[in-house]
Each structure stands twice: as structure tokens, then as C-alpha cells.
Specification:
six-stranded parallel β-sheet; alpha/beta; binds nicotinamide-adenine-dinucleotide; 17 helices; 440 residues
């Protein structure tokens, strides 16, 4: 099939590359010329395990190309994915300006009947809006091609995006006509061989399903963080509790990890967007609001613990930080907890020396105005001679450090485990003071 994908970020690039890998002829279009130039050279601008070989293979086979030209993208395909960003607007609503701009660009150029599939996470009603915006432009041109839209929200996880796309748990298809549903069936057939993973529903329910999934996961995390803070006061270890409740099949083990708050490009903005939608409709959404409030508090917990270790005065102290990405296996730092920790500590006069296996180029850009923030070439270099160490991201390489060495090099002997990665007794036995989240 001939497919165009608009937006070559974490979702658009993975979608385009994976669809090309199974033999489709895919053209990806993006407004960022530097990104497109890099992609045309075969460089993958994001860190996503397994993506590079898929891009390389598909480009070599002639199935995957990149352009900045909408004319080319529209001329190429009659199936067009919209996978541009939907960041938070100032009032918390999803900023749909990129999506609307795509719709207008399409409407100005479409030359035949087309199916436009919205993959971006968008509020209920957006697909209708996209279709009307395209039709409005077609009307101005005096042409009447049949434009159908379908909702196909994406559920890939950064760090596992290729695997998630190739072997999805489910593919949500929101469409109101049989022809679109049939096209989507064919499109996903190569990823759908051993059982039918397509869940077909109406467009509005599909749009809502994506928000429901992300908000559910975010609520679970905030729930565990709230319990973790209480556990600390009660002399309870939240890690035991996590295992105890996670083994209940009604609850399940995922997304029960207490930590330094959630971040990333999706949970925070999707929570805000759904709350905005509910507020607009004057509909209560207390649980979602509580999840946001708990998370805002939780993002400060690690910095507060560090300050307490120094009796409130961290001025002139050096804090080593392991991990900048919002989670392991990605370079994405959007709304990462590390940013909150760095801001709190440097605002109080501490120096932060950080290391992350892949997110440092992003950190360099984000932190360029913070003179108290520096980067180290390795985890060891970051910790060497620092006062204390805080671990923010659960990268594999941080899972089993040399605690004896850490105890010998950290001057104020504190290890702040923002992911509950370590056994407190082992850390203490090495001569360090251990601080976890919700642990005795
Ligand atoms: N990142 C994730 O893990 C994830 C997972 C599921 C769903 N989503 C959703 O998918 C959407 C995309 O997320 P992302 O993380 O890939 O975003 P991203 O910011 O990584 O990428 C968006 C891309 O779109 C391009 N773009 C913006 N406006 C454009 C336009 N008018 N025409 C062409 N290109 C344009 C940008 O230059 C950028 O390259 C969002 O709605 C997001 O909520 C993201």
C-alpha cells in the first residue's frame, strides 16, 4: 500500500518505518527540515532500541523515504497518517494547532479520495474537526473528493516502540464506515497474524480509549506514590506491598512502582487534557486531579530528602545524578522527574553533576542556562567526589553499582534511590545512608 505519515517523531517515525518494513511504500513528511535531512541520510534522530535497523532496511529496499514537501506526501498516497505532537496548551487543553495545520495542508492539496488516519492522541471530537477542516479546504478549491477519517490511537511505549508496533497488544480502530475498517484491517494484517488484535469501535470511543489508558496508568503510579509516603511514616516497605498486591490477578504487577513521580511526553499532558475536557463539560474528575496533585508533590520528594540530609542547606554541595531520561531506554526528557530534581537543588545553590547513557544531548540543550548543572562522561565520573548520589532513571547500568566504591567516594555518604532499585540493607552495609521511596 502507498502510505504517507505526517510527523516523524517517536510515533510517526516508528509507524512509518514499521509499515515500510512489511513491504508498504511509505513517505514520511515533517516540517523540521533538519530532522528530515538527517533521516534522508539514514540517521535516526531519536534513541529507540531496534529502530535503526528497521529504518536502514526499509530505506535500502526503497520502501521508506522522507520529505518536507506536503505536495509530494499528498501525491504519494491515499492513506495518510497524522502523527504530529499534541502538547499541552497554556490552559492544559491539548494544543491541536499541529493537527489542524495538517488537516489544512491536506485539504489544500488532496487530489483523490483519501483516508486520513489520526494517530496523534487527540480529544474526543477531533477526528470530526479534522474531517470538516479538510472538507472546508476542498470546498474552497471547488473539488469534492471523498475524505474519510479514522481514529487509530497509538499505544507504543518509548523504549519498546518497535516491538510494540510489530507485536501490538491491541490495535484500536475507530471508524464509522466499513471501507475504512477494511483498509485498517489490511494495513495491520502483517502485525496481526496469530490472533486478531483489532478492536473496532466508533471514532469518539477510540479517541477516548487512549486517554483512558494513559490516565489509568498515571493514576496507578500516583496511588502507589501516595501509599509509599504513608508507608514511610508507618515503618512499612512499599516494595513488599507492591509485590503483595501485584500478585493479585485483579490488580496485576505493572505500573505499581513508587518513585520520584511520573513524567514523559504523554501521561502529564494527557491527564491535563482530559481534566480540561471534563472541566469544560462541568463534569467532576476528582481522581484525575488528585493524580496530578500527588505527582506534583512526588516530583519534589527526592530533592526534599536530599535537603533534609544536609539539614536544609545544600548550598555549595555537589549532587551526583544518575539518569536524566523520564524512563530507561529512551532519550526523551519531556517533563522528566530529573528536571524537577535539578531545578529544586540548583535553585537552592547545589551543583548537580549528571550522567545518562543517551539523554545527555537533550539535557545539554534543556539545561544550557543553568550554570550549576554539568554533565559527566560516565556514571562513575558523575559520582566521583560528589557529596551524595541520586538515582532517577532505572537504566540497567545503574542496577548493580559498586556500593563499596560509592561509600568511599561520596563525601556525605548518602544514596537517594528514586526508583527503589537497591536493597537498603546492602547499601547500608557498604557504609552509605540509604533513602528510597516508601521504604523503612
Ligand atoms: N511518544 C510516545 O510515547 C507516544 C505514544 C503514544 C501516542 N503518542 C502521541 O502521538 C503524538 C506524537 O507524539 P510524538 O512523541 O511522536 O511527538 P514528537 O514531538 O516526537 O513528534 C512530532 C513530530 O511532528 C512534527 N510536526 C509538527 N507539526 C507538523 C506539521 N504540521 N506537519 C508535519 N510535521 C509536523 C514535528 O516536527 C515532530 O517531528 C502525540 O499526540 C502523542 O501524544 C505518543
Amino acid at each position: 500500500m502507498k502510505i504517507s505519515v505526517i510527523g516523524t517523531g517517536y510515533v510517526g517515525l516508528v509507524t512509518g518505518a514499521c509499515l515500510a518494513d512489511v513491504g508498504n511504500d511509505v513517505l514520511c513528511v515533517d516540517v523540521d527540515p533538519r530532522k528530515v535531512e538527517r533521516l534522508q541520510r539514514g540517521e535516526v534522530p531519536i534513541h529507540e532500541p531496534g529502530l535503526e535497523p528497521v529504518v536502514e532496511r526499509s530505506m535500502k529496499a526503497g520502501h521508506l523515504r522522507f520529505t518536507t514537501s506536503y505536495d509530494e506526501a499528498v501525491g504519494h498516497a491515499d492513506i495518510i497518517f497524522i502523527a504530529v505532537g499534541t502538547p499541552s496548551g497554556e490552559d492544559g487543553s491539548a494544543d491541536l494547532s499541529h493537527v489542524v495545520s495538517c488537516a489544512q495542508e491536506l485539504g489544500r492539496r488532496l487530489r483523490r479520495d483519501s483516508l486520513v488516519i489520526v494517530k496523534s492522541t487527540v480529544p474526543v471530537g477531533t477526528n470530526d474537526m479534522v474531517r470538516e477542516a479538510i472538507r472546508g479546504e476542498l470546498k474552497k478549491r471547488g473539488v469534492g473528493f471523498g475524505v474519510r477519517t479514522a481514529s487509530n490511537p497509538e499505544f507504543l511505549k518509548e523504549g519498546f516502540a518497535v516491538a510494540d508496533f510489530m507485536k501490538p497488544d491491541r490495535v484500536i480502530v475507530g471508524a464509522d464506515d466499513e471501507e475504512s475498517i477494511e483498509t485498517m484491517r489490511q494495513l495491520y494484517a502483517p502485525f496481526n497474524r496469530n490472533r486478531d488484535r483489532l478492536i473496532v469501535m466508533d471514532v469518539r470511543s477510540a479517541e477516548f480509549t487512549k486517554y483512558a489508558a494513559n490516565c489509568m496508568l498515571a493514576v496507578r503510579i500516583s496511588f502507589m506514590n501516595e501509599l509509599a509516603n504513608l508507608a514511610e511514616r508507618l515503618g512499612v516497605d512499599i516494595e513488599h506491598v507492591r509485590q503483595g498486591i501485584g500478585s493479585d490477578p485483579r490488580i496485576g504487577p505493572q505500573f505499581l512502582y513508587a518513585g520520584a513521580g511520573f513524567g514523559g511526553s504523554c501521561f502529564p499532558k494527557d491527564l491535563r487534557a482530559l481534566i480540561h475536557t471534563a472541566d469544560e463539560r462541568r463534569q467532576a474528575c476528582d481522581i484525575l486531579k488528585a493524580a496530578v496533585d500527588v505527582n506534583a508533590r512526588q516530583r519534589r520528594v527526592l530533592a526534599d530528602k536530599i535537603k533534609q540530609h544536609f539539614n536544609g542547606d545544600v548550598k555549595g554541595r555537589t549532587i551526583a545524578l544518575w539518569g536524566l531520561a523520564f524512563k530507561a531506554n529512551t532519550d526523551d526528557m519531556r517533563e522528566a522527574s530529573s528536571l524537577a530534581v535539578i531545578e529544586e537543588l540548583t535553585a537552592a545553590g547545589a551543583c548537580v553533576v549528571a550522567y545518562d547513557p543517551v539523554a545527555m544531548p537533550n539535557a545539554r540543550v534543556q539545561m544550557r542556562d543553568n550554570s550549576l548543572f554539568t554533565l559527566a562522561a560516565s556514571a562513575r565520573e558523575a559520582a566521583e567526589g560528589a557529596d551524595v548520589l541520586a538515582v532517577i532513571t532505572e537504566w540497567l547500568e545503574f542496577r548493580s553499582p559498586d556500593f563499596e566504591w560509592l561509600a568511599s567516594t561520596l563525601r556525605a555518604k548518602g544514596l537517594f534511590d528514586g526508583r527503589n532499585l537497591y536493597d537498603p540493607a546492602t547499601v547500608r552495609a557498604a557504609g552509605l545512608t540509604y533513602y528510597g521511596i516508601g521504604r523503612v
